[in-house]
Amino acid sequence: MGSSITIAMPTFFESLELISEMNSGIQALEFLTFSGFPHTRVVLDSVPRTDLPFARSIRAVGHTTKLPELLGNLASLTTLNFYDMIALEELPESLGQLVALARLYLRTCSTLKRLPESLGGLTALTELYLQECTSLKCLPESLGKLTVLKSLTLRDCALTRLPESLGQLAMLTTLRLQECSFLTCLPESLGHLGMLNVLDLAKINMLTRIPDSFDQLAALKTLTINQCRLLTGLPEMLHELSALTTLNVRTCVVFAKLPESMDKMVALTWLNVTSCRALARISVNCIASLTRLELNGCVALTELPETLGQLTALTTLDVSKCNALTRLPESLGLLAALTTLDLSWCGALTWLPESLGQLTALKIISMNCCALTSIPQSLGQLTALEELNLSGSRALRELPITLGQLVMLSKFILHGCIVLSTLPKSLGQLTALRFLDLSLCSYLTSIPESVGQLKALETLNLSSCGLTRLPDSLGQLAALHTLGLSHCNALTALPEQLGLLPALRTLQIDHCTRLKRLPFSFVHFPDRMFHRVYGRENVFMFDGLHAMTFPPADVVRKGLSSIKAFLLAQNYPLKMMMLIMAARRRRMSYLPAELWVLIGDEFFCE
Question: How far apart are CA 180 and CA 131, in angstroms?
């Protein structure tokens, strides 16, 4: 029959007893789940007991402090799952009789204090998973008898020690001990785990040292020691881990150094020491296999070694938020495989080496919020570069004239470069550029006419710039769909061709307080471009026509001059221009001076 049954826990226990009294068993049962908090309120208590012996999967719902010894009679059971059993204090000794059990999961069994010594009898067990068993302080020594166990996870448990028998788990490939905050040390027998591939020690806050036997883990490929806040370093013999490909020691805040012998780690491809705030020096000489080096947030790091250039396989270098970093080595240019370079938030970095231009494989550079005053001319040699981020570079005064040689550049961000006053004419040569952000460049008073050559440009953000005019060539940007001009307070006019842009969907001109006129070409915009419409594709943002202050009837009766004086006193000229453009769309021609009276008649009378 092989059915799946959900049943109340007391009913399940009663059924076990009855079936046992009949000298029978639940022969087909492979999957048994004890759940403290059911996802549904419907519990099938009316299941015929004659069906139970043939059930392949049973989910028993409810709470109990202990389970009957009859549990050991379920000889065919392969998977046993305890979920949210917050009242469960112990497991029966008969657990060890489940000789077919391959997987045992205990999640959020917060009052479980011990596992039975009979655990070692589970000779078929391949996976043992314990999570949030916050009262469990130790494991039985019989753990070492689980000779086929491959995966052991002990996550967020209250363990204060691990049994020495751990080293007897000859088949173990994965050991995860995340968030076992009360562990202060690991057993020396750890080094006997000759098949171990993955070791995760993340967030073991009390861990102060790694056992000397650690270097015997010859099969280890991934080592994670994140947020071990008392750990000061790694064993000098770490290089003996000849199979290690990933070393992650992120946010070990008192971690002061890496072993000098790391250059002998011939298989290492990823080294992550992010936010190791005490790490003042790094030695990564000759790790020829390294492809990813992450030093993000190493705030004590003042420089990178000249030997950095020997990392010929490196594709990603992240030194962002290294606030004390003042320079990069000239050997940087030797990183021929580098595709991503992140220097963002390096607030003391004022200079880049000319060798930067030798990184011909580079695709992404992030240098936002650095102290750079200029960019080397060799930047133009980065012909594979697709994304360049210089946002927040508050000291950057100029860009190299070789900028136009970046033929693959599609995204260029200069937001917040507040002292940048000019752009090179070569900007127009960036024929692949699709996104250009110059917002908050408050010293930028003009952009070159060559911008009209950016045929692929889709988004142009000039908001909060010091622009006094825009080039007429903007009207040539056939692919442009978003143009931001918000808060351009020095801008007095817009190019006549702007209203003819065929792809334009979003035009933002709110708070352009000196804008005196709008181009007549705006009459070609669809009606919905004249309103602030959130959630729609076409948006024309302005000061808000809905917020315009209209003259009262007594002002209207005084005639044209009074209406005009009131409008100029109470509203930005742009608001009135929007009304004029709406009227022009209806007439498709310039309106005479009587426009003001017409507006008065149509909109202002009571």
Answer: 10
